[in-house]
Every structure is written in C-alpha cells, then in structure tokens.
Amino acid sequence: MVLTRDFKETVKERAARDPAFAKAMLDEAATAFLNGEPHVARLILRDLVNASVGFEELATETNRPSKSLHRMLSENGNPSMDNLAAIFGAVRKRLGVAFEVHAIEAA
C-alpha cells in the first residue's frame, strides 16, 4: 500500500516549520506577479497565508473581511492593487522579509 499526503497540507506544514521555505514562497509569489502571472501569485499567496498568518489574522491586519480575502486569493480572484499590497505587506511583516527589486534587461 502506498502512503500519500495531500500536497497542500505538505506545503502548509513545511512553510510553517521552515522559515526559509516560507520566504522562498513569498519571493516566488512576488516574482510571479511581476512576471505577469497574477493567477500563480494568488495561489502561492493563498497557501502561504494558510501556513503563516491565517486568514482570520490577515483580515484583522489588513482591515478586510476574511471571506473577501479568501475570494481575492482564489483561482479566479481579482484583488485590487491596494488589497494585494496589503496582503503582501502583512505576510512580509509576519516573515520578517524586506523586498528588493532588481531589474534585468531583456535580451
């Protein structure tokens, strides 16, 4: 018999116990967003919020309803730039991360 684990639960547990992994997820979400892949960024952020801040605490920190935050970070979500900035800010603060953006010239 093969033992399997739910992928989302595995990611959630790893992000919760491994700060470097959680920071890499945040970096990946920001990179996806800046590279024109907002749907990927939302899904990574959703998993990271579940593993770190939690939607109820995120709601308190961003002054937005938890249910709205869930919708924003769903596969078909469409958060405004203000909401996305608030979400990134709250997660960044929780993980103790500062962003640095480096432009690379396209060939």
Structure write-up:
66% of the residues lie in helices and 0% in strands. With 107 residues, the protein is mainly α. It has one domain (8-95). The longest helix has 16 residues, at 19-34. This is Transcriptional regulator.
**Strand portion:** under 5%
Low-confidence stretches: none
Q: Choose one word for the global shape.
A: globular
Q: Tell me the number of helical segments per DSSP (H or I, 4 or more residues long).
A: 6
Beta strands, count = 0
Question: Which structural category fits the helices and strands?
Answer: mainly alpha
Summarize the structure.
The chain is mainly α.
Write the layout of secondary structure elements.
Layout: H1 7-17, H2 19-34, H3 38-51, H4 55-62, H5 66-72, H6 81-95
Helix pairs in contact: 1-2, 1-3, 2-3, 2-6, 4-5
Features:
107 residues; mainly alpha; 66% helix; 0% strand; Transcriptional regulator
